Amino acid sequence: MKITLAAYYIATTMLICSATLQAWADPGVTNLAIGGIATSTRSDFGGTPDKGIDGNRDGNFGDGSVFYENADPTAGATSYFYQVDLGQNNYINRVQFLPRTDADQNVFGNFNISIYPDDGTGNPAATPSFSQNYNSSYFGDSFATLDPGAAAPGGANGRFVSITRLDNNYWITFAEMEVIGSATPLQYTRNNDIALNKPVTTSSAPGFGAVITAGNDGNITGDFGAGSVYHSSNHSIGEYWQVDLGANTPLSYAELFARTSVNSTTEFKVSLLDSSMNVVQSVIVDNSDVTGPTPGYDHEIDFNGAIGRYIQVETTSDSYLAFSELEAFAVPPNLAIVPDGSNGVQISWPNTGNYTLQQNSDLSNAGGWTTSSYSITTANGTNSITITSPAGNLFFRLKQ
């Protein structure tokens, strides 16, 4: 019998029949596209495929690091693509495109993002692990999505990541296609973002058609026209947006995604406050000119276990406050698994953070997770369950 604890943060595996104990924790993510191999239906004006994954976010076409592809002129062609081979199967959290900045192209419309695993021969499998169409009627200047990370436990798994224009019209051009993920299952995804859809307050009403919830709606696209960028109506020092996490919580880090194409906010102050509104931690985030050679976009703010309830994002100069998303992630709980000497185990974790123990008999069935039927005992700030050996496999996870 095999019992597996697959927490969102730390998974501990125990194979009781051989008394082997194994544990793993997720490493940090990186841009997996760097060092990959890019291909496309075609390229034009010297904007070769490699320029879209060279690690250079400079969106000025004249600086030599922008990919450009016109529609496929082949008779009967209905689409055209750009694809990155990551070299091996990886777990993918997000795909993001940094825009061309010397011209307003608005090319991100009526397209598909797909991720294909290796079929075992170094080629894309017949069936993608992730595939979704976007912007059927809207054409934007940039695009980014967290959907791959939320699509499966540990993130969508694959080696080949592609964007395909579905109408064979116009062109695709961008400074950089970034594929953010890891070689091992992901520790943090949109599925355990504790800021997602939580209550928000602001220093002034949102302006220019923005909505107050745009800063934590799960959409990281930095294109204001796409409708998922928070923008203040006033410009001043200390213009703020604040999310209530619901309770004092030990935090690992936050991820702040800026607006793209327009440099509304060049510097952010991100503060963590406790339930009494005392500042616990504060950091200044430099958002490099989004139209310059090293544009800012995604910023990680390490909280290193600091405990707080509110995260506040504010301006440090007389400017508008604009950004696309703030994610927040709690500190991983410490899971403990101990054999009880009778072909069973005791599993324990801290009684903090409002975690629910879930179980599943088939890890490939993402919809099979249900609240565990095992009785939970709480003593001295610790929750625990005792599991005797059932037939087959049984998987457990903590979900916040």
Report on the architecture of this protein.
It contains 1 helix and 28 strands. A hairpin with a 3-residue loop joins β1 and β2 (10-15). The protein has 3 domains: 2-26 and 343-399, no CATH class; 32-190, Galactose-binding domain-like (Jelly Rolls), CATH 2.60.120.260; 193-330, Jelly Rolls (Sandwich). The strands form 5 sheets. Strands 4, 5, 7, 8, 9, 10, 11 and 13 form an 8-stranded antiparallel β-sheet that branches. Strands 14, 15, 16, 17, 18, 19, 20 and 21 form an 8-stranded antiparallel β-sheet that branches. With 400 residues, the chain is mainly beta. Helix content is 1%, strand content 46%.
Keywords:
single chain, 400 residues, mainly beta, Jelly Rolls, 3 domains, 8-stranded antiparallel beta sheet, 1 helix, disordered N terminus
Rg for CA atoms: 23 Å
User: SSE order in H/E notation?
Assistant: EEEEEEEEEEHEEEEEEEEEEEEEEEEEE
Give the total of domains.
3
Uncertain spans, ≥5 residues at pLDDT below 50? 1-27
Which CATH architecture of the largest domain?
A: Sandwich
Major sheet description: 8 strands, antiparallel
Q: Quick one: CATH superfamily of the largest domain?
A: Galactose-binding domain-like
* Strand runs, count: 28
The first-level CATH class of the largest domain is given as: Mainly Beta
How much of the residues is beta strand, in percent?
A: over 45%
Q: Which topology of the largest domain does CATH recognise?
A: Jelly Rolls
Count of helical regions: 1
